[in-house]
Amino acid sequence: MNDALPFDGDDPADVGPTGRRMPELPEPPVLTGHGPARVVAMCNQKGGVGKTTTTINLGAALAEYGRRVLLVDFDPQGSLSVGLGLNPHEMDATVYNLLMEPDCTVDEVIVPTGVDGMDLVPSNIDLSAAEVQLVGEVAREQTLARVLAPAMATYDVILIDCQPSLGLLTINALTASDGVLVPLECEYFALRGVALLKTTIDKVKQRLNPKLHVDGVLGTMYDGRTLHSREVMERLVQAWGDTVFHTVIRRTVKFSDSTVAGEPITSYASSSTGAESYRQLAREVISRWHDA
Ligand SMILES: Nc1ncnc2c1ncn2[C@@H]1O[C@H](COP(=O)(O)OP(=O)(O)O)[C@@H](O)[C@H]1O
Ligand SMILES: [Mg+2]
Q1: Residue 167: per-residue pLDDT
Q2: In a domain, 24, yes or no
Q3: Nearest bound ligand to CA 184?
Q4: Tell me, what's the pLDDT at 1?
Q5: Would you say 185 and 220 are in contact if contact means Cβ atoms under 8 Å apart?
Q6: Is residue 29 in some structural domain?
Q7: What is the pLDDT of residue 279?
Q8: pLDDT (tens digit, 9 = 90+) per residue, 255-284?
Q9: What is the whole-number distance in angstroms between the Cα of residue 34 and the centre of ligand 1?
Q10: Considering its fold, how many domains does the chain have in total?
């Protein structure tokens, strides 16, 4: 397979994989200082759609562009933490301690990753208890926003990797966020359930977090050789219009290989199409945040 990105916006006649003309996505401006962070929840109640992969690789690409990035593993499965090389049984403190222990501060749970400028709040199975324990708390939906607040000044971007559900943990993530990014597998059935996700986002916006904005819908596991992938993309654009990112992430085994290696694809296979696609996504999200 050709490793060059076929849709890079250089040619004005380029029609991208979403059927629209590919805009130019300029190099992001160099930052002169850091913070306050833009908080973005990676959200889709379906599992296996690329939430964790997008969190790791978009985070690493943003860090390459000089952004200070904090990743928050907010799934009791801890795939984000494992994908960055952590052992779930050897964590001193996790996001669970941060949520449930009044004396625990975010600084105490942050760990560095192998990527310069990118840190992690890890998670493991302990977090599954928080969903139940939070129910009895005052302002239970605001808990994550409250405990992350002290990190806002240090980072430019905080990415929250949600679990595949629309339960209280995900509501906490949406309440803590400025934006939501929805990864969607380019499969027909992926379109089911998106209406429910949209309703949930709208409810959180109305009742808990008026600033919440859908930053974009990201087509993942795209295979341009199949009519099927292209049709799903077409329907996505019909339903969500310009909310759909011009960038799509193609299906490639390099993603699972890099997970096994415990590092982002941007370092594991730095010049691969997958790495380039996430760099392109980083440029696209930065330009959207700029315009927002
Ligand atoms: N673009 C892609 N091409 C091929 N495999 C992918 C791609 N994105 C993710 N995967 C793989 O699919 C599986 C599910 O992805 P993951 O990011 O963990 O989804 P989620 O967090 O939504 O459950 C993982 O094994 C991952 O390596
Ligand atoms: Mg995941």
Answers
A1: 96
A2: no
A3: 1
A4: 41
A5: yes
A6: no
A7: 98
A8: 999 988 999 999 999 999 999 999 999 999
A9: 31
A10: 1
Classify residue 249: in a domain, yes or no: yes
CA nearest ligand 1 atom 23, residue: 48
One-letter amino acid for residue 72 of the chain = V
Packed helices 254-261 and 51-64: angle between N→C axes, nearest 10 degrees: 80
Q: Does 272 sit in the ligand 1 pocket, CB within 6 Å? A: no
Q: What is the CATH number of the domain that holds 204?
A: 3.40.50.300
Cis, peptide link before residue 264, omega less than 30° from 0: no
Structural domain of 243: 38-291
Question: Do β-strands 213-220 and 69-74 pair in parallel, antiparallel, or remain unpaired?
Answer: unpaired
Residues 91-116: pLDDT tens digits?
989 999 999 999 999 999 999 999 99
Q: Is residue 196 part of a domain?
A: yes
Give every residue of the chain whose pLDDT is below 70, as ranges: 1-13, 292
For residue 158, the one-letter residue type is: I
Q: What ligand 1 atom has the least distance to the C-alpha of 222?
A: 1
Distance 49 CA to ligand 2 centre (A): 8
User: What HEC string does the chain produce?
Assistant: CCCCCCCCCCCCCCECCCCCECCCCCCCCCCCCCCCCEEEEECCCCCCCCHHHHHHHHHHHHHHCCCCEEEEEECCCCHHHHHCCCCHHHCCCCHHHHHHCCCCCHHHHCEECCCCCEEEECCCCCHHHHHHHHCCCCCHHHHHHHHHHHHCCCCCEEEEEECCCCCHHHHHHHHHCCEEEEEEECCHHHHCCHHHHHHHHHHHHHHCCCCCEEEEEEEECECCCCHHHHHHHHHHHHHHHHHECCCCCECCCHHHHHHHHCCCHHHHCCCCHHHHHHHHHHHHHHHHHHHC
Does residue 224 contact residue 230 with C-beta atoms inside 8 Å?
yes
